[in-house]
């Protein structure tokens, strides 16, 4: 079974229009963050979400744009020095930001991700303390109806072993007990970042562990910032897997990976969304194909 297609708003051009086009071809999940598009992404999505109440939305907490830095300072949530770092997971700030996101989106997000807790390269114990504090704040937010569930979105920590599913679950249980609301992880997966997929084929690593734990996995940056569409030519795709187009190779690899629940794609035009949907919904690549791809693009 292939992963579902979702929209990521980090690089999407014309967020409301792009989101509408994505929904038209069947996308039912949009991922955003309060720092995307200069702090305007959540507000831009609000009317689209209001018009499509069945579409789910996730956002994040961690990074502060200048406007939110000023607001956090004025509200006494963060010192000026802490706010100007541009990233915080302090308990009071997390609760405030989640409440602010609910207002901006016009509804409680379905998942709020802790955004790149590895930012600033904290020491292992500092990273765990940072996440535990954020989890405690998010458990409180869930109980108050500010968000339905929460997760962790990393760029490098789930790739380099700084964080593991086992560790995240332990911290979630410490924060919320056995009924904790940790439900998902998000990490970049692509032909450039294949390590977790190769591990999953051997039935270990973050994807396998998440699947065993019942956590959803959201794969971000499948096009690696758009670079892969120019690197993977029709000739390259045909030589690797005959009959497969470049986009089918790029997106199909991630969509077919064991344990991946959803791919988050930042596309803008209807044509791009249709092509992506066709690539994701085709017959999934089998384990032999995935191993061939993994061997051709070593991590």
How would you spell out the order of helices and strands?
EHEHEHHHEHEHHEHHEHHHEHH
How many strands appear in the DSSP assignment?
A: 8
Shape: globular
Low-confidence parts = none
> What class would the helix/strand composition place it in?
alpha/beta
Q: What number is the mean pLDDT?
A: 95
User: What fraction strand?
Assistant: 5-15%
Task: Provide the gyration radius in Å.
Answer: 19 Å
Major β-sheet strand ordering: 1-2-3-4-5-6-7-8
> Which bin fits the share of residues in helices?
40-55%
Distance N to C terminus? 24 Å
Helical segment count = 15
Give the arrangement of secondary structure elements:
Blueprint: E1 4-8, H1 15-24, E2 29-31, H2 41-51, E3 56-61, H3 66-74, H4 80-83, H5 91-105, E4 111-115, H6 124-143, E5 149-153, H7 157-160, H8 165-176, E6 182-188, H9 195-201, H10 206-213, E7 216-220, H11 228-231, H12 234-240, H13 246-255, E8 262-265, H14 270-281, H15 287-296
Parallel strand pairs: 1-2, 1-8, 2-3, 3-4, 4-5, 5-6, 6-7, 7-8
Describe this structure in words.
The chain contains 15 helices and eight strands. It is α/β, with parallel strands linked by helices. The mean pLDDT is 95. The relative contact order is 0.14. It has helices spanning 15-24, 41-51, 66-74, 80-83, 91-105, 124-143, 157-160, 165-176, 195-201, 206-213, 228-231, 234-240, 246-255, 270-281, 287-296, and strands at residues 4-8, 29-31, 56-61, 111-115, 149-153, 182-188, 216-220, 262-265. The radius of gyration is 19 Å and the shape is globular. Strand 4 (111-115), helix 6 (124-143) and strand 5 form a beta-alpha-beta unit. Helix 1 (15-24) packs parallel to helix 2 and helix 9 runs antiparallel to helix 15 (287-296). An eight-stranded parallel beta barrel has the order 1-2-3-4-5-6-7-8, surrounded by seven helices.
């Amino acid at each position: 079974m292939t992963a579902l297609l979702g929209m990521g708003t980090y690089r999407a051009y014309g967020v409301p229009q792009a989101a509408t086009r994505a929904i038209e071809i069947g996308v039912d999940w949009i991922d955003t963050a309060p720092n995307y598009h200069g702090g305007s992404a959540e507000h831009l999505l609000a009317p689209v979400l209001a018009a499509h109440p069945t579409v789910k939305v996730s956002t994040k907490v961690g990074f502060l744009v200048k406007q939110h830095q000023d607001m956090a300072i004025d509200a006494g949530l963060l010192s000026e020095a802490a706010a100007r770092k541009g990233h915080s997971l302090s308990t009071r700030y997390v609760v405030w930001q989640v409440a602010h996101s609910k207002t901006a989106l016009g509804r409680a997000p379905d998942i709020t991700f802790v955004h790149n807790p590895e930012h600033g390269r904290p020491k292992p114990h500092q990273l765990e303390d940072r996440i535990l504090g954020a989890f405690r704040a998010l458990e409180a937010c869930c109980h108050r109806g500010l968000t339905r569930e929460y997760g962790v979105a990393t760029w490098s920590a789930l790739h380099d072993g700084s964080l593991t599913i086992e560790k995240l679950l332990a911290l979630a249980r410490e924060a919320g007990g056995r009924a904790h609301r940790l439900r998902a992880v998000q990490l970049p997966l692509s032909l450039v970042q294949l390590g977790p997929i190769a591990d999953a084929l051997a039935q270990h690593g973050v994807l396998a562990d998440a699947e065993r734990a019942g956590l959803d996995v959201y794969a971000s940056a499948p096009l690696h910032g758009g670079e892969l569409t120019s690197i993977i030519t029709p000739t390259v795709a045909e030589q690797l897997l005959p009959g497969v187009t470049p986009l089918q190779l790029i997106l199909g690899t991630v969509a077919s990976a064991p344990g991946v629940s959803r791919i988050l794609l930042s596309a803008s035009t209807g044509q791009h969304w249709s092509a992506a949907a066709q690539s994701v919904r085709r017959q999934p690549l089998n384990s032999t194909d995935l191993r061939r791809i993994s061997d051709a693009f070593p991590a």
